[in-house]
Amino acid sequence: MTPTFGLFLVSATSMAEFFYDLIKDTLIVKPCKKSPILLMMIVLLLAMLCGVLISSICLKQINTNTNVKLQDIQVIDKPPHGINPEQLGIPRVHYPEPQTFSRDECVHNPVRFFAILSMQRSGSGWFETLLNSHTNVSSNGEIFSKLERRQNASAIVDTLDQVYNLDWLSSASKNQCSAAVGLKWMLNQGVMAHHEAVSEYFSRRGVSVIFLFRRNLLCRMVSVIANSHDRYAKLLNGTHKSHVHSPEEADILSTYKPSINSTSLIDDLKQVEFTTAKALEYFNSTRHIVLYYEDLIKNRTILKDVQKFLRLPVMELTSRQVKIHKGPLSMHIKNWDDVSKTLNGTIYERFLHTDYR
Ligand SMILES: *[C@@H]1O[C@H](CO)[C@@H](O)[C@H](O)[C@H]1NC(C)=O
Ligand SMILES: *[C@@H]1O[C@H](CO)[C@@H](O)[C@H](O)[C@H]1NC(C)=O
Ligand SMILES: *[C@@H]1O[C@H](CO)[C@@H](O)[C@H](O)[C@H]1NC(C)=O
Ligand SMILES: *[C@@H]1O[C@H](CO)[C@@H](O)[C@H](O)[C@H]1NC(C)=O
Ligand SMILES: *[C@@H]1O[C@H](CO)[C@@H](O)[C@H](O)[C@H]1NC(C)=O
Ligand SMILES: *[C@@H]1O[C@H](CO)[C@@H](O)[C@H](O)[C@H]1NC(C)=O
Ligand SMILES: *[C@@H]1O[C@H](CO)[C@@H](O)[C@H](O)[C@H]1NC(C)=O
């Protein structure tokens, strides 16, 4: 606080006190029969003066306080390195009253709201089946893949309301005894386009965000191209499958070796990184954790962390999905020499040296 401001504060306060005393004295004065209107005018005038003074003092104080607070938040809310659920605060608790059914015996069980924010081919399908293997988790899938549900902010809010009121019925619904309810939402399905409305909604309704990204964006690119190839090639006896449940099916799908456009490769990778960074920035004030597919595969403790993050009773989670690509990445890219030459010596060189697991 600058000395001038301090002086102003003192003098303003004493002036306010002075006026307050004056008002008090005036009020104590017995009703003057001669000119009650004049008296009232004086009181009103003094009150107004007093109000102006006090509010100017308050404004000054609020200004200094907000500055301090913003700085504090920036220090506290640094994006977490790794996961420490205890540091992330407690998720808000809800007791939804669905219109489509009664929660019966679980009516007194609290429910937590979550959203898995991810990108295509980042393991979110697999991750969601793991979550849904929990008796108390209802993750309703990629409901925003339908355009009309994300055409504008109000369509998004209506859809989210249905999900979090437990009125969205899907094969994943655990209905009465859901303790955590949510959905899987790809960043290109309206999250980024309507990020202000979405993050406002998440804060207002206490929705926690689970970010799921892939560390190796080159592996992801192979998967994206292979999956979109299979959309028309339909390698599995004429049906397109994005996720498979047997090693045989995985082998068939992985026989297709995509060739990657090395001209646009660096820009494409940059674009994905940029989108990821933007998403983290847009939701930096929402309660969240950041997961990476590669870490989840190696380390099942992370699944326990996720359950703790959602305050669920911790269970062993299972999925029947099988990985499609295995072995060194060089085996899965047709123009590998081209790609490795392009990335050699760049910040993305590390993507070349990881095997699929
Ligand atoms: C959150 O992101 C906004 C920009 O969207 C930025 O202005 C703000 O400083 C960030 N806050 C923190 C705590 O990182
Ligand atoms: C938002 O989209 C929905 C569904 O497409 C539509 O029915 C509604 O009229 C739209 N509302 C506004 C405000 O544009
Ligand atoms: C989880 O679901 C079971 C029924 O499947 C129920 O008995 C239990 O109370 C639920 N737990 C929570 C924390 O809601
Ligand atoms: C494709 O169809 C053949 C014959 O119907 C069957 O033996 C084979 O298992 C099928 N393969 C897959 C991957 O579904
Ligand atoms: C590869 O990317 C470049 C730059 O974006 C583009 O001009 C070119 O047409 C692309 N090639 C193919 C085969 O898609
Ligand atoms: C697995 O993840 C947990 C945090 O979730 C971490 O504490 C532990 O060190 C990790 N273990 C390995 C082997 O990386
Ligand atoms: C990367 O570039 C260096 C020299 O710039 C070369 O020695 C090395 O063989 C290259 N690696 C690959 C995988 O192309």
From TrEMBL:
Supply the alphabetized keyword list.
Membrane, Transferase, Transmembrane, Transmembrane helix
Xref: InterPro entries: Nod_factor_sulfotransferase, P-loop_NTPase, Sulfotransferase_dom
Question: Pfam families from the entry?
Answer: Sulfotransfer_1
- Looking at the record, the residues that make up the Sulfotransferase domain are 116-315
Q: Any keyword Membrane?
A: yes
Top-rank EC class of the record's enzyme: transferase
User: So what EC number does this one have?
Assistant: 2.8.2.-
Q: Which domain of life is it from?
A: Eukaryota
Residue ranges crossing the lipid bilayer per the database entry: 35-57
Molecular function terms, GO-annotated: sulfotransferase activity
Coiled coil: which residue ranges?
none
UniProt similarity note: Belongs to the sulfotransferase 1 family.
Please name the PANTHER family in this protein's record.
PROTEIN, PUTATIVE, EXPRESSED-RELATED, SULFOTRANSFERASE
Q: What is this protein called?
A: Sulfotransferase
What is the scientific name of the source organism? Tripterygium wilfordii (Thunder God vine)
